[in-house]
Prior knowledge:
The protein is α+β, with helices and mostly antiparallel strands. It is about 45% helix and about 25% strand.
Amino acid sequence: MADEFELIxxxxxxxxxxIPKDPFAVFERExxxxxxxxxxxxxxxxxxxxxxxxxxxxxxxx
Length: 62
């Protein structure tokens, strides 16, 4: 759990992003969720696809 938050302004929204006490532990924990054998290119592709999906859903684009 975070004690501090970063305040981010996005268009007409305010986001509170938690700042972890131990960011390296968070990276390690999240890294363990990545399936073995994925290349950096695969990870970039998955991240790009997820971002595009989120934008499309937010703006009602198919």
